[in-house]
Amino acid sequence: MTEAESKRRPGRVALALQGGGAHGAFTWGVLDRLLEEGQRFDAICGVSSGAILGVMLVQGLVRGGAKGARAEMQRFWRRVANVHAISPFQAAPLERWFLGGWDLSNSMLWQGMELAMRLFSPAQINPFGHNPLRTLLEDLIEPHLLRDAAAPRLTVAATDVMTGEAVLFANEAIDVDVLCASACLPFIFPAVRIGDRAFWDGGYAGNPPLAPLLRPQLPDELILIRAQPARRPGVPTTPAEITNRLNEIACHNVLSAELATLPASVRLRCYHADTALLHLPISTKFSGEEAFLAELFQAGRAAECE
Prior knowledge:
The protein has 306 residues and is of the alpha/beta class. 44% of the residues lie in helices and 13% in strands. It is built from twelve helices and eight strands. It has helices at residues 3-8, 24-36, 49-85, 93-99, 108-119, 122-125, 132-137, 143-146, 176-182, 239-260, 274-277, 290-302, and strands spanning 13-17, 43-46, 153-160, 166-170, 192-194, 197-200, 221-225, 267-271. Strands 1, 2, 3, 4, 5, 6, 7 and 8 form an eight-stranded mixed β-sheet that branches. The longest helix has 37 residues, at 49-85. The radius of gyration is 18 Å and the shape is globular.
């Protein structure tokens, strides 16, 4: 069955969105093309940047259908680029010229951050718990749209620090706190507290969890958009690279276990990110440079499902 034929078939369609920081712009590109081609979604689950994209997607669908969803996702990434434009955390033009590409690994600021993360806890580095993501999202998220009767079913996952289990937040519970919890990197930010529970990035317990998409009724089709490479050649050497690869392995293994038990009746369409992201170092997950995001967006639009 071709991809075009699959889109025309009736049935319930579930969408799984991985997290990956700025690399989520690849996911944005995939979604933009799917919406342009008339793809619909009945249920969505995401973590980290995938969760934020899921929220923008649902808000846009409620506000203005596929066109509205594409505009809403663009609005989010444009905000990311605007905020990054005044941030010191970017490669200088000469640095980019000599080092090539978008790698920040050799910048003094990145090396200072790596050293700080090895020597100090997030509570020591950031005692007031400031999270720039919260500021970025506060006027973008509109919970009333997520609760609209026309909104697709949306699940955002975060990892409970105490139990290590995924905690699932449905449309009516999703707000800025939940999205910050789903995207909380424990080496950079203090755990996000919601009620009496503390949360870290949802990817640790499933990137993303598939269970919410398989109940109460099995979908006819599951679309998985990856924002992390499934495989990496070579052996990482720096502390940041080692930590990043350990995180990728842990997240990949949880997802692989869930995919292995996917009922045979559910058709799987997977968009792999290896070609677009494999050559990018961990530092680029923190790059919001407009040209870099546009490059990933175009790579996502050109991606083919497997």
